[in-house]
Design brief:
It comes from Methylophilales bacterium HTCC2181. The chain has helices spanning about 30-35, 50-65, 90-95, 110-115, 155-165; strands at about 5, 20, 25-30, 40-45, 70-75, 105, 120, 125, 135, 175-180. By secondary structure, the chain is of the alpha+beta class. It has one domain (about 5-180): Glutaredoxin (3-Layer(aba) Sandwich), CATH 3.40.30. The strands form 2 sheets. A 7-stranded mixed sheet has the order 3-2-6-5-4-8-9.
Length: about 180
């Protein structure tokens, strides 16, 4: 496992549209996924220990953000042939077992991950109403361990700020996670 860090936020970068199949059997795009006040686009997968460590808190925080008009969409772009735990069928199981309140989409061609310059799982992109990037950073201060008592909920607080002001925080910390498992060229 290789741990990678994401680059800093490129404020104002515009979200790339997509048309991907969700585990719910529906096709999803930016306009369908968008919330009243913004959208979190996150690249995750089923097997990454960083994702597994935050999953219950992630589901909870995203449900809270939805009440503030911030929707979310999760995308798995990993090579499911080499990493069968990341298959579409297993994505459906993870979504059901953890009661995802957001779409979980399969980027089978990996084109969307490339267009976003996604680096790792998890990799979070927080957009305002105009689909301008306002947050690219970590979920919280826990890494892949247990959340400390003084855990800083970076994604939640950043997107709450976006819901209120349409601007993200100036100080952001890179997300850390496992590399996206790219297909051989």
């Amino acid at each position: 496992m290789v741990s990678l860090n994401t680059p800093v936020c490129n404020f104002g970068w515009l979200a790339k549209d997509f048309n991907l199949l969700g585990v719910d059997g529906q096709q999803w795009n930016l306009s369908k996924a968008m919330g009243l006040n913004g959208l979190v686009v996150m690249f995750i997968c089923n097997h990454c220990p960083y994702v597994k460590a935050i999953l219950p808190r992630l589901v909870s925080d995203l449900a809270e953000l939805k009440k503030l008009g911030i929707n979310a969409v999760a995308i798995s772009s990993n090579d499911a042939v080499k990493y069968p735990e990341d298959s579409f069928a297993n994505m459906q199981k993870i979504s059901n077992n953890h009661l995802f309140s957001f779409p979980y989409l399969f980027d089978q061609t990996q084109e969307l991950a490339k267009s976003y310059n996604a680096i790792c799982t998890p990799d979070f992109f927080g957009f305002n109403q105009a689909l301008e990037l306002q947050y690219r950073g970590r979920f919280d201060s826990s890494g892949r361990g247990e959340a400390p008592l003084d855990n800083k909920r970076d994604l939640y607080h950043a997107m709450k700020l976006v819901a209120e002001t349409q601007k993200g925080p100036n100080e952001q910390f890179s997300s850390i996670g496992c590399s996206i498992k790219w297909k051989d060229s």
